[in-house]
Every structure is written in C-alpha cells, then in structure tokens.
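To: structure subgroup
Subject: Chain for Friday's discussion

All,

I'm putting the inputs and outputs inline so they're searchable in the archive.
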Amino acid sequence: MEGVSVVPAARILVIEDNGSDVFLLERALKKQDFPFELIHLPNGGEALAFIRRQGAYAQAAIPNLIVMDLNLSKYTGEDILREIRAAEHLAGVPVCAWSSSQSRRDQSRLTGLGVARFITKPAGLDQFMEIGKGIKDLLAAFPRER
C-alpha cells in the first residue's frame, strides 16, 4: 500500500435544533467529496455538556470544526460561543456560526468573539448546497493535527 495516504475524516460538530437544516448540511458536505464525520447536538444544553466534557461527553473527541446555529432554545449562540472560547481543549478549533438572520450587528459581534465564518442560512436548496464548499474551504484553512 505504498503511496496511499489515508486522510482522516474531519470531525464536524453541528449545534442545531432544526433537523432539516442538519440533513441539508450533511447533503451539502457529501457533495464536496471529502471524508467527514458529523456529530449533531440538538440543543444548547447538549452543547454545553459537550463543551464542558460532562456525562456522555467526558471522553468525546475534539472536533476539527464547530458549526453552530445562533438561535437555539434556552441558550443564545453567543452564550455557547463564550463557553467554547473559555474551554482550553477547544482552543484553536474554528467556529462557523450560521443563522437565518442577516444582521450586520450580529455578524460583527460574533467576529469579535472569534467566529471564523458567518453563514446566512439560504432559503433555496441550490444555495444550501453551496455551504458545503465554504465549510470544506474553512477546514482546509485550519490544518488538522488531532
């Protein structure tokens, strides 16, 4: 098997309460033809447990990228982002925030909190499929060492 390199799958953590958006994101990523593993957390409480390494997440692998919705029930994306940035084991993990909001104020506030990219959730399927390329490019910009 000389000359064959095995590329490890990119671990992508998705914090999103809308199952349809997760399904579409997974389809968009599959169209990009690169190995990935999608870890879905359906709400802010699960996300905080993951970030704090509590319970079932005590030994969870560190993701290569975190994609998070800004509008979760009970917690804001900003709350979750502050927790991510405070977690030493997640230092250097890029965060991609996505939302149906197109607010420039939201975007600049999140950029100040260290969001690598802000994606506005598109209404159309074709535009949604374009998100996969953006995420693939973002992963390429942050080399994996884990």
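Points worth raising on Friday:
The longest helix spans residues 125-141.
The helical segments are 19-30, 44-51, 77-86, 104-112, 125-141.

D.
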